[in-house]
């Protein structure tokens, strides 16, 4: 029972990796399930057994993207630690994720595939909103603790994400710039912290 299960998981992973490669090189619209099957080294029937449609396959890739967004961002709020120290840890995790080549590849695929599909774009934005809940929850707890000035938590979190992505996401996605090095990451984080705390710290 275990061996067939492992084989099935390996085939599923091969299909996903093939789809990522094909979507990256040819784009979502042009890539066919036949091509994905050939690249994965499996039959077309096997691909359809795992993913009933190209949309389902793409949705699974998006799930991986969203999971990677949240993988390192869940840090509980502490009433005992300085706000700056806690936020610094959160932002370092965020920039570490944004510098990951696999994450950037998945993000490029997702963005390219949504350009011609408003429905897909809306789904992507909705998922992003859910997945960036970590910082929003942290801000909500800091507010309840009286350590931040009144603000809508989701609004403040979106501001912070915007400060980071202006340097560590959009230039890499849209202009092919390299990921930030350690010194550049530190500079972006410290500047974002200065701006955020100057505006919101109680």
UniProtKB/TrEMBL annotation:
Keywords: DNA-binding
Residue ranges constituting the HTH tetR-type domain according to the UniProt record: 9-69
Highest taxon in the source lineage: Bacteria
InterPro entries in the record: DNA-bd_HTH_TetR-type_CS, Homeodomain-like_sf, HTH-type_TetR-like_transc_reg, HTH_TetR, Tet_transcr_reg_TetR-rel_C_sf, TetR_C_Proteobacteria
DNA-binding region: 32-51
Pfam families with a match to the protein in the record: TetR_C_7, TetR_N
Protein name, entry field: TetR/AcrR family transcriptional regulator
Organism: Pseudomonas viciae
């Amino acid at each position: 029972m275990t061996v067939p299960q492992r084989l099935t998981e390996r085939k599923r992973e091969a299909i996903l990796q093939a789809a990522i490669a094909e979507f990256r090189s040819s784009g979502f619209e042009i890539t066919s399930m036949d091509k994905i099957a050939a690249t994965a080294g499996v039959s077309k029937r096997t691909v359809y057994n795992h993913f009933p449609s190209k949309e389902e396959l793409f949705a699974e890739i998006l799930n991986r993207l969203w999971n990677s967004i949240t993988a390192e961002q869940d840090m509980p709020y502490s009433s005992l630690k300085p706000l700056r120290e806690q936020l610094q840890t959160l932002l370092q995790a965020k920039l570490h994720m944004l510098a990951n080549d696999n994450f950037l590849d998945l993000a490029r695929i997702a963005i390219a595939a949504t350009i011609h599909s408003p429905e897909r774009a809306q789904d992507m934005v909705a998922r992003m909103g859910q997945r960036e809940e970590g910082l929003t929850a942290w801000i909500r707890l800091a507010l309840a603790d009286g350590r931040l000035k009144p603000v809508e938590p989701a609004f403040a979190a979106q501001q912070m994400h915007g400060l980071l992505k202006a340097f560590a996401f959009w230039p890499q996605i849209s202009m092919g710039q390299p990921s930030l090095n350690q010194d550049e990451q530190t500079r972006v984080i410290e500047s974002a912290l200065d701006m955020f705390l100057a505006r919101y710290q109680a």
